[in-house]
Amino acid sequence: MRAVQVVTTTGPADVVVNDVPEPEAGPDEVLVEVHRVGVSFPDLLLSRGEYQLRPEPPFSLGVDVAGTVLSAPDGSGLAVGQRVAGVAGHGNAQERVALPVGSVFALPDEVTFDQGAALPMNYLTAEFALHQRAGLQPGETVLVHGAAGGLGTATVQVAVGMGARVVAVVGSEAKRETATAAGAHDVVLRDGFKDAVRELTGGRGVDVVADIVGGDAFTDSLRSLAPLGRLLVLGFAAGGEIPQVKVNRLLLNNVDVRGVGWGAYTFVAPGYMQEQWQRLLPMVAAGAVRPPVGRVYELDAFGQALTDLAERRAQGKSVVRVRD
Asked: Which runs of consecutive H residues, i.e. helices, occur in 99-238?
C-alpha cells in the first residue's frame, strides 16, 4: 500500500510516497481504511527531525485520519463500515492504519471525511487547553493568537462552544475572514493587538490568552490579561527564540502562564480522549464546532502541503485525499 514517508529528516521537499507492508491490527486495535489525512504542524517538525517524538527513518507521517472501519475488537462499540476519525503521533498518512481503540472516534453523520480529518488533534488539544488547563467558564473572554490556522480556528470554535467571548488575532487582513467564519466575535491584527484588546474590553483585558504563535507578542499577551487571567502556551508557530517570562509580572498582576501538552497528558490518562470526544459532540450538534477545511491535496502533494504550512499560507485545516 502507499504511504507518505520521511526517509531523511531534511524537510518537506524530501517527503516521498513509498510502498509499505499492510498493517495488521492487534487485539486492542481498529483497522481503518483511510479516506483523508489531516496536515499538522507536528508533521512539519517530524519531516525536519525537530519534533519531541523522533522515530527512526523511514517512517510514515500523518497525525489525524478519517476513514471507515475494516475490523474492530469485540466490545469496542465500532462496526465494520462505520465512519471514524482517529489520531496518532505519526503513521496515519497511508492507505490503511491500525489504531488503538482509545484513539478512534465515531463520526457524526453531519461530519464529512474532510472535516473528520480536521477534528482529532486540533480540537482535542483546544478542548484540553480550555477545559482542563484554563478552567474556562461561560462568559469569560478568550484571545486566540494564530486564529486563522488549524489549531487557531479549533480553539476559536471550542471557546465559543463553551460559552466564551472570543477575540481572534490574525497576521493579515486576508486571514480576517477565516477567523470570522470560524465564529470569533471580534478579529484584530497582530500588529497593535494589545491596544485593540484593551479597547474591546473596556481596559479590563481578557481572561484567557491561547498562544499558538509565540514570538515577540508574548509580553503583550501577558499585559492583555485581566486579573486572574491565564496565558496558555500551545506552540511556537512563529519560530525563532522561545519567549521568556519574568515571574514578577505573574506575582504583581495575579496572572498565570500554563503549558498545554495534550499529547503528553493523554499518555498518562487512559480513556481521556474518549471523554473529550463526548464533550465535543454537543458542540458539533449545536453547530459551534464545524472544522473549516482549507486546501485539499492529493497524496503525492503531502510535501507541498507541509511547505505551505511552513510558509504560513495555510488557512483552516489542510487535508490530503487518499481515496473518495
From this structure: 113-116, 120-127, 150-161, 176-182, 193-200, 218-223
Q: At what angle do helices 272-286 and 150-161 cross, to 10 degrees?
A: 80
* Per-residue pLDDT reduced to its tens digit, 217-275: 899 999 999 999 999 999 877 666 788 888 988 999 999 999 999 999 998 898 999 99
- Decide: residue 220, CB within 10 A, 0-12 exposed, 13-18 middle, 19+ buried: middle
Report the number of distinct structural domains present in the chain.
Answer: 2
Average pLDDT of the chain is: 94
Query: Do residues 241 and 138 both lie within one domain?
Result: yes
Element (H, E) at 54: none
Note the pTM of the prediction, 2 decimals.
0.92
The strand pairing partners of 85, in sequence order, are: 66, 105
Q: Among 237, 230, 256, which residue's Cα sits nearest to residue 143?
A: 230
Taking only the tens place, the pLDDT of each residue in 129-151 is: 999 999 999 999 999 999 998 89
CATH number at residue 44: 3.90.180.10
Q: Which domain holds residue 299?
A: 2-119+291-321
For residue 52, name the pLDDT band (cuts at 50, 70, 90).
confident
- The answer to whether residues 231 and 314 belong to one domain is no
Q: Are residues 236 and 144 in the same domain?
A: yes
Q: Residue 115: inside a domain, yes or no? A: yes
